[in-house]
Amino acid sequence: MRPATTRQSHFSIRPLTRSYHEVLRSVFRAESQDGKGAIQKKRHVEYEERVNGLYTNTRLFHKGMELFSGEARHLLTRHLLKTVCTDIVNVCVACLAEVHMIACSDPAELTTEARAQVLLQLPVEIKSPVVKLHNSLNGQAMQEFFDLLDVVCQQEICQLMLKKVDKKRERQLVFSHRQSLMEQLNREEEPAMALHLTAVILFMQQTHCMVHAPGRCVPHVITFLSDKLPPEQNSVLLEYQSLVLQQLVANRQSDGVTQEGDHDSVTKPSDNDMAAAAVTGLDALKGLVFSTKKSAKETAV
Is the pTM of this model over 0.90? Predict the structure, then answer.
């Protein structure tokens, strides 16, 4: 048999070359899908961890919030919904946006308007519960938020498993949070923030609960503590609160935005006297935290 000519060899190799490239393409596609799937799985785990960290804090803050009533309870609820709960919803929305290939900012940068735009593009079958969760941030009911979050995190929507915290872990988290605040207080030199930190830490020491309080709630926290602290400690706290309020009024007056009645409602010393008193009183204020038996030397159980 005569050997194949160059032309015959060329035509016999081309089908083999095509087959080889098709196999290569199929292998590449499979590897790309596997790689993409691994990345998506890793991202999903990250979303789940972020949601659970925030969810745990929300539950702990909610437990402390339930010790209050009336206006204080209302303010604490609104603050919790507008801060930590909003962060949770942002992570859930970012997770869904990635699954459904919708353009979305990082959860930390997601605005209310951007979140609403993502919700408009979600599939109809999952949109309703996510929109309800989004709307609950403007409500005043923590239980409604928790119930809707449970629905959104289910297998059919976000597929994010919410984990409960056992009592031992809860005590460790509360202890860790208190230690962090105490370290911050130890460095703090600004009177209003020092008062804020002191009130929150004393609340934790007295109740073993965390509270997520905005500045306007500090007087409510101090009122809560009034019948739980020894009279001399309560006196130090109230005197420093009075000093901080006088400084805030003085600052508003110097900015030209004094409200009617401020001159009559507060009899204040000079700005220099108040500044000196604030500096002098810081040690006594911080001593309420660091001189108690439940101090930084306390160990977590």
Answer: no
